[in-house]
Amino acid sequence: MKSLIDIPKTMKALVLHEVGKLTLDEVPVEEIRPGTVLVQIKACGICSSDVERVFINGTYHFPTIPGHEFSGKIVAVGDDVDEALLGRRTCVFPMLPCFKCPSCQEQQYAQCSNYDYFGSRRDGGYAEYLVVPTWNLVLFDDDLSYDVAAMCEPAAVGIHANSLANVKKGQSVLVIGTGMIGYVCAAFASQITDQVIMCGNSASKLEMAKQYGWKTIALESDNFEEKINEYTGGEGVDVVMEVVGTNQAICNAVTAAGPNSTIVLVGNPKADLSMEKNLYWKILRKSITLRGSWNSSYSDEQNDWKAALEGLKSGKFDQLITHRFSMEEAEEAFRVMRDRNTFSTKVMFVMD
Question: How far, in Å, CA of 287 to CA of 89, rounded?
Fold first, then answer.
């Protein structure tokens, strides 16, 4: 093993002991194994799914260190690992596939039948250090900051959704949802077409969308169908990316979709869903394609993470980080995430 630092025996980490009980603890630093490196974590984003894990659903076991959107510096490598990795900056693909199931054999790792996952099934990035297999490393250059690079995971999800939608120049694209994933879906779509519409409930987030040059639909004050007809000349949109997962959002997606359009479903539902018969018939009559989108591609043929890092270099995403907190400020960080009256897009833990 080679190391740039004297590796401590313990570290600070936010540990989820039970639903609603997240505490800053002193925990052991994991031992470096063959084929792994030790990453000193510099930034870790709080995903909306983390809020549900901490306060509603829990993780797969307790205790668990949450966090799957993180970046850091490689400070130690295993005996069989290239020493050139020492000192490099890296993001981390959080999924740990089995490499054996049929999906893995096709490099469709997001569909792995028996996967592990940093931050939910095993300890993740709300910590000072994490041992990571070299396969999961996504290296980036020193000119990209750690906090911006930590947005690579949601950015890769947005790229993946756009890829499944097969967005083309000149098409109209509707993004339903004004959270972080909604923003990155719209941002990457706008690199292809100039007809992007964002729809949601938050007036402040829709104002931010206008700064990017996108059209908007405010669900609390606008007539949804009238606005869709106004923006598309009554034809409906070519592509919908639904990133909320509620019954109303999915119904709105079908309502807005035009003939031979594509709907990509990205949002995770929190309850059972239903649809009126006449709306379902619209899917049939207009030959609408429905695509499910889960995570991102991380294969030799298509690596959404490398594409995401290239997109993040543009600087256009920097302003999406609205709040930065230390791990000691976790209570306030989660308060911001849960408070609908506080404007936020990406809330980030920074470790330096």
Answer: 46
Q: Using the Cα atoms of residue 93, residue 98, residue 102 and residue 107 in order, give the sign of their dihedral.
A: positive
Measuring CA to CA, how many Å separate 57 from each of 17, 196, 319? 13, 34, 30
d(CA 207, CA 147): 24
The pLDDT tens digits of the residues spanning 104-116 come to 999 999 999 999 9
Tell me if 337 sits within 8 A of 344, measured CB to CB.
Answer: yes
Q: How far apart are CA 58 and CA 121, in angstroms?
A: 10
Whether 126 and 347 have beta carbons less than 8 Å apart is answered as no
Cα–Cα distance between 273 and 282 in angstroms, integer? 17
The rounded distance, in Å, linking the Cα atoms of 299 and 307 is 12
Residue showing tokens 């069989």 = 80
Structure token pair of residue 200: 């949601």
**pLDDT tens sequence across 155-190:** 999 999 999 999 999 999 999 999 999 999 999 999
Q: Please name the residue that has the structure tokens 């059972």.
A: 272
Residue 48 CA to residue 153 CA, distance in Å, equals 13
Question: HSE (CB half, 13 Å, CA atoms) of 247?
Answer: 7
In whole angstroms, give the CA distance from residue 107 to residue 301: 9
Cβ–Cβ under 8 Å, residues 74 and 87: yes
Buried b or exposed e, range 293-309, using 16+ CB within 10 angstroms: bebbbbeeeebbbbbbb
Q: In what order do the strands lie in the sheet with 172-176?
A: 215-218, 195-200, 172-176, 237-242, 257-265, 289-292
Helices 247-256 and 277-285 meet at what angle, rounded to 10? 40
